[in-house]
C-alpha cells in the first residue's frame, strides 16, 4: 500500500508565523509624527513617520500626517491584530474638541484600525522612554518646557507648561525671546552688540547693512526691523534662536552665558515645585534644551545631582516609550524591564 508524502516546499518559500497580537505606540510632536507597531515581546514589526502631528497648531494637517504615518507603519500588517494603542501627543488637550477629535478618528479608522487608541501627554511618554520604573518625575525642555510627577506610569501633577505666552520658562522659546530682548536693550542704550547680538541680528535680518548704525537714526531703523520681523512670524519660530544662544555661549559670549545659566535656574525651580530633595525616584530629562549636549542640560545635571536624590536619566525615543506603555495596556505583565530594554535599545 503506497503512502502519499507531501511535496517538498520550494527553497525560497516562507513559512509564516501564526498571527500574534500587536500593539501600537505613537508620538505626535510639533515637527514629526512617528508610529511603531510591535509584538507582545517588544519586537518592532512596523514603523511610520510623517510631518508634525500636534493637534493644537494645525489640526487638519496634523490629522492627515497622523493618517500617513499609520498607513506606512501598517504596511504588510493586518490592522485587526493591533489590540492596544498608546499615543503621546504634545498639545493633546485639543483632542477634547469634537471637531479635532473627529479628524483624528477618521485617520485612525481610515487606516483599518479598530482598537481604541489612548491619547496621553508627552510627559508620560518621555518618562516611560527613560525608565521602566513606575514612579518618578520628568522635565521636558525643548521648544517649550514642562515638568510632571508620574505615579504608576500615570501623570498626577504638573508644573509649568503654560505655553509661550504665559510661561515655558527655560525653554528654547524662552532662550530665543530673551536673546532678542537683549538686542533691543542694546539698541535702546545705543550700545555695541556682542557676538550673541550680532548673531541674532544676522538670523533675523540677514540682508541688513551694518553701516546703518552710523546714521543718526540707525539704531531705530534696525530696531524697528527686528520688531517687525519677529511679530510677522509664528511665535514658535522664536525657539530657532536657541541654537544661536548656544553657539554664542560656546564662544564665551557673556550675555549668552547669562541666559543659559538663567534658563537652567528656571527649570530647576520648575522641578522643585513638584519634587522634594529627599525623593529617591528617577528624574528623567527630555528635550533638546535639557539634552546632554546642551549647555543648559549640562548645568541641569550638575545641579540636580547636587540637589536631588535618585537617578538623573535622559529620555530616549518617545515613540518607543509609548509602545512599551501600550504593551502594559494590553497586559500589565508585558511591561517588563526586558521589553523596555528591547524597545529602547
UniProtKB/TrEMBL annotation:
Matching entries from Gene3D superfamilies are given as:
3.30.420.40
Q: Which residues form the ATPase BadF/BadG/BcrA/BcrD type domain?
A: 24-299
> SUPFAM superfamilies per the record?
Actin-like ATPase domain (SSF53067)
- Name of the protein in its database record: ATPase
Name the species this protein comes from. Kribbella antibiotica
